Amino acid sequence: MLPGEAVLIELNVAIKNKCYPKSEQAVLAQLDFTVKSGEFVAIIGPSGCGKSTLLNMISGLESCSGQHISYNETAYQESFANNEDRQQLGYIFQQPRLMPWLTVRENIELILQPDQFDKVDDLLAQVGLANEGEYFPSQLSGGMQRRVSIARAFAINPQLLLLDEPFNSLDAPTAARLRQLLINLCEQRGTTVVFVTHDLQEAVYLADRIIFMSDSPSTIVHQSIVDLPRPRKESGVAELAWQAQLLLKYPGLLAGRIDE
Ligand code: ADP
Description:
Elements: E1 11-18, E2 28-35, E3 40-44, H1 51-59, E4 68-71, E5 74-75, H2 76-81, H3 83-87, E6 89-92, H4 104-109, H5 120-126, H6 142-155, E7 160-164, H7 172-189, E8 192-197, H8 200-206, E9 209-213, E10 218-225, H9 237-249
Parallel strand pairs: 2-10, 3-8, 3-9, 6-7, 7-8
Antiparallel strand pairs: 1-2, 1-4, 4-5, 9-10
Adenosine-5'-diphosphate binds at residues 20, 27, 45, 47-53, 216.
């Protein structure tokens, strides 16, 4: 492999009876799935079913003791012991989580080595913030702050990107612009993506495959390959028809049920 060449990431997840300390009830009962290199997988499930828990386990923020999560067949613990692998993982949270006392530029530089600082201007231009590098987060709109968090996640050129309802509570045009930005960045870089959402229309627009979870203690109730050509339209006829057909067949799917 050439220096700097992207390592494509395949993610394997096998979780059984994930419990939080002091709780006897499992949050995640059983989840087994693989995300292929460069695949965009959306995860949909009812509130509280454990979607954030799942992302936190994949990212290493939450304990994976006794569970199996691996990247390219490297066991979880080994890959995180290796600092380079940690660099390959980006996480965009529900809130932008910017440091309020740092400028936009400094928020991105925070996760880079000094010899990588020259990337920042290009990243800011890609997310449409070329002139806002010296602003503080409080001087930006909510949508602009999310763009900074996207630029920060892409600054390390992640091969695996985790997103937890990142466009929640944004106005529709801003969310649409940010989804397009995400598609462009992921396509340019061949990023492997796990995207948590409760919005089926968003999932159909973005994803190659959608995994539907049940209520907690959760299992996978259904998986759908979104076999629609790209580029897609958020409210395109084919996209809306695909969504309607799925819900006609499985009316309880968004509530985590397949048996209706
Ligand atoms: P979702 O993202 O699907 O809304 P979460 O993963 O945030 O669900 O939460 C799933 C369940 O796990 C909830 O009942 C929540 O209260 C519980 N939970 C989440 N984090 C913790 C924690 N750190 N300690 C104990 N329970 C937790």
